[in-house]
Write a structure and sequence with these properties.
homohexamer, 193 residues, mainly alpha, globular
Chain lengths: 193, 193, 193, 193, 193, 193
């Protein structure tokens, strides 16, 4: 079995207090510590910036964009980037947030044929554009989002989440980051939902 | 929820006997009828040819290529083609054949970072080449496979499976074929293995 | 001169009777045995399935899709896959079926500038989509075909032929299958039409 | 049947003398006037420059690069650019120069499986690199050519021919330039060689 | 002239103190406020996280990776992403850090032909791999970097910078972020160096 | 510092008179001899043809297409081909012709976000199509240009310039042609305009 990260994982007791506390807090809440926290802790300043950026965009619910929508963007764009860690980990969170055991597999393989709304489809079309052909983003794409009721802040959020995971996916590939086994089953069986 | 196929599904009692019997037989063995059988039954001659081709390559175990290896080829190439049906259905079979709840998700997202042997990695490198850049297949690729102990018939099998699912994936996309919900969980929990 | 197939060709008298008879029958009808039959005979079960699938889609003429149309799909998609065998062999058949010595070369190089009808152009646009970007096939593409008078079964046929030759092209690349010299000239000179 | 060029063809008697004479001279030599001359004559200055550039690279035979080799480069790179005019017209010239009725179809579809020498294969590998990924040309590619006995001037010729037809192919696409029907059959039947 | 950002720019006096102070500090140091600061200030939490991440990777000099090297990675990967803001702004910084008025234009257009060392070339090869094909990063790439004397932390830095600007480039495209005119000339004329 | 060309530069006094005179004339007018003239002089016949073709398309001003427009096409398509020489040299000329110190950097990185008119945007969209996907050029693209007031000769010019620089860019890559340092600063500072 491959290691958690190509760069190894630092001992918890050598970490700065705030980093270790954040890790322990996540472990308490989730029941296990997602490997991304352990791997990133090798660089405390980057750890703090990443977690702050992540929380600013993902720990948030707006009228236009629920938490499940945000996770759906992560799964779809991470799949386009072939990122095992992000697809598996955020696929689990998506199943839980959406209370749907099937949607993550659908969105990860081909969101065009997933059981999602036309509004979510437009959201993912835009997120994928930002992920894969960002130089072509134009005003016409923003108008298409507006037709589905997304306001300016929603557009920023969709694009910014796709951009953040362009970064995260690449970091995970750099590390060959391994998803925790627990993620694979989370949200798939009724009692877990 | 989307229908099973864009082209609908014929009533079982209107099918030719051999097609209906094959469908019932699969249903008995698996516990449910995989949607691909129902959707393809709309065209009995194509149904028979597809099933015959599938069985000739997949219902087979050779010293060089086990059934789990064959399913692994299907999952990896179908993922490269973004085929929801094949990734989900054959992902389930791979989990069961390999007795491994994690490998299908790994292979479907990025086989380069999956927990597989170097030999399996070489097998998938070649299968992906056939799936995505077939015109570049050359003698050097066959030599690489030979270095991993694959003989001539193994090479044929690997390439032919990748070729067959190039067809199946496209057919599934044409139909917008929906995977049965049962597949998503199969082989993930201990008691099911 | 390269061999017929990387995997060799089995002696005719070692083949199962039905396979040998089919080969002899084709040879009698065509005047020579197309190499694909000889190369595939190495695997009788796959030979039978391939021939059955091929005949179910190609030996058929419907009000919406003539035999020349079907060959045109094969030539256009095989060219997109750079498949020498299929472009040369089916190019010959297309010239004969269409009674046109130029159309195969046109369709093989750039179907957008071929002397074909707008309806055939729409047919090839869809076939190429299935061949090269199958995950993006959507209902809008089916509506475009309907505007040109293609019904549901025509759509299935166009897509299924493109899918079948996605398989055949890859198999031919795997084998480095060599077209018979006879194909290159068939249908090019008046007396042959 | 489509016109010769999207931009039309000027009347011969309105052309400058040197342009008309060159056209008549080609017509006398070939038996018909290749359409590219008629279409380009719309712009006499560009006509003269194009013909001069073409002749400087193609009407030339060096110890390292025969006329058939030069045509082979044109066919292979024009096929990569899907240029009907250049593939059909230069395919005819290649058949004649190489005294081989099959090689043009092979090179146009997949030069990797054509009946050519290893030296010609290396030549086409480099020509295709210049045609499709020119920014990646590096010293290592020149060393590979040197290993096959190509000297500095040969390298210039191979690259410059690929570059010139990058231009010609695009011009032909711009015009939707139609190949003369005569080209399709030239060099295919023994008496014509 | 296009606006600074599609999403507008918030009034400085409505910003949180720390954000405004950081902006003023940058303005004092540089002589003008780079537009990215103004545009990102619309979202203070994201502003803080971005700036922190940026500084952790870019405001740093290690034995293996100088500040000019870091800027060179930004310019090369941002050019691959067609990001006007990042190419222009970081091109200016690269000219200054490298004390070279030409290198930024070279690296932005085709780093393979830039006047850089073999070690820098290897660094950019890896950075571009992370930027454009991150799923293919493997141990062999890390070994290649090691041959050029890059240690584990250097590899992390190169990859993490490429990853961070995968995010920044996409954010800039989302905003249609406009570079300040001052950047275009910075570091080009002797007295400015 | 890299040499001017991989193939070297011939001594001026060994050149044919007309070639040497043309080089001296350019040197007098520009203040230095652009390297492309020196590098191409190695092949006088190709030098003459190239210069003639260039002048026929670029030394020309029509009501529909000014000299700055023509240079803009060169910069945009050369950037798509990653051609350092052409982007730097023609970027300089574009700055001068357009009397705009910023537009060349904008067009070279992402013309979609440059400060250009909608008509220029349409012109560049078409030029890029010819440069990168020429086989897809169709009548609908010509109609779009007509809507922006481009007549038939303008369309020829736009397409022919894109085609010519498809050739020039590839030749420059073949030579690893180095831009003269003078180009980098030309047209950037007020007194030079």
């Amino acid at each position: 079995m491959r290691p958690i990260s190509r760069f190894g994982v630092p001992p918890l007791d050598e970490l700065p207090d705030d980093v270790r506390e954040r890790i322990e807090q996540v472990g308490d809440r989730t029941g296990f510590v997602p490997n991304v926290f352990l791997a990133l802790a090798r660089r405390p300043a980057e750890f703090r910036a990443f977690v702050a950026y992540h929380d600013a965009l993902m720990d948030k619910e707006t009228p236009g964009l629920g938490k499940a929508d945000r996770e759906m963007i992560v799964v779809a764009t991470s799949a386009a980037n072939d990122c095992t860690y992000c697809v598996v980990a955020h696929g689990a969170i998506l199943r839980i947030r959406a209370r749907d055991p099937l949607v993550a597999d659908q969105v990860a393989t081909n969101y065009r044929q997933a059981d999602i709304t036309a509004r979510q489809r437009a959201m993912l079309d835009f997120a994928l554009l930002v992920a894969t052909e960002p130089a072509t983003v134009g005003d016409s794409h923003l108008r298409q989002l507006a037709e589905h009721g997304f306001d300016t802040d929603d557009v920023w959020d969709i694009g910014a989440i796709a951009a953040l995971f362009a970064q995260s996916n690449r970091l995970a590939h750099l590390m060959a980051l391994r998803p925790n086994p627990e993620f694979h089953l989370m949200g798939r069986v009724p009692q877990e939902r």
